[in-house]
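Researcher: I'm preparing a figure for a lab meeting and need a structural model of a single chain. I don't have an experimental structure, so a prediction will have to do for now. The sequence is pasted below. Please return the structure as tokens so I can convert it later.
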Amino acid sequence: MKRKIFFTAFVLLALGGLLSAQHPVKPKTSEQSWRVLARAQAAFEKGDYGEAISLCEAAKESRARELEWNRYVMKNALNSPEVKKKGPFISDLIPVLKAREDFDALEIIDYWLGKRGARYFDDSLPKLNDYLMRLNEYPECDFLLAKIYRLEGEYQMAMGFLQNARAQSDLLDVPAQKSDILYETADLAKSLGDQKELEGSLLLIVADDGLYKDDASKRAMARSAALKRKDAVDYFFMLHRHSAVNSIKAYFELGELYKSQKRVRDAWNMTANGVTCALTWTLEILRDRSPEYSFDGLRDFFAECGRYQDVLEWSGKMQVWKGFFDMALSAKENGWENFGDSLLSAMAFSCPDPYWAAAAKTALNPL
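Model: Understood. Here is the structure written out token by token.
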């Protein structure tokens, strides 16, 4: 009798284990992948790179379990007769899921709509489900791992993680982080002397800013710089403005790259774009500080910048003054001597950065 009871209990336990193994279990809150990644980031900031790497791998494992659970829940929801009958639109299906008390499906839908918005999925539950099927990668983890391995001197491994993070950047929780990944990739490529990777990463940064692909703007800026009028510089900056603050550093880097490759006109185009974007952004800051301020020439602009320490610090960090200087030299290399000398003269007498004011004076009066 005891053997029979024991055997029955054993069979029930085995069946229970098989049944539990047949479908995923909802992950615990403490094991959510973003929480594990946050711990990895904290370890990285403390310099505990071994712990950070271990937690990154744990975050990827947590992400896999979450996705397994999400897919399981969504598959059951999509296969239910009520959902099939009502149609694919999320807005129509929410009441159906509530009536079915399918709270797990509702929680998942609410989470992803909060992150991406209904428009991202065209208000379609099948499209949301298709998106979940793609989430096998965790680009945020790869980005953090790349930074760790770069600090450890494992440059090729770091580049591999960066390239993977870039390839999967459409899955980032914060889409704007793609720019950070691209700038990090470009910086590492520059350190490695990989000009092809450097150029490719920088071009991806500026590709969609509305200025890089604007050939009409390139031609207009070249025509303005070629004018032989006394106020050519002021006229140029009165005409040409563009708001793309995130592209400024990329344009300056591209300008330097093309200069090193003797691509004179390309170097001008990129440097002029960077300066134009920097001036536009700075003008917005100056007008916020002093609503009555309006651009009245480059020398006046330089003087106004000099009134604000944070503007000077930002301009130094973004290498804006160097950008103006490089723009002047690039203009001269393209045969626009009047524009180049006028810009150097404005910098020599008014640039708020003493180093670049002195550099401009030297360029105007070489030994």
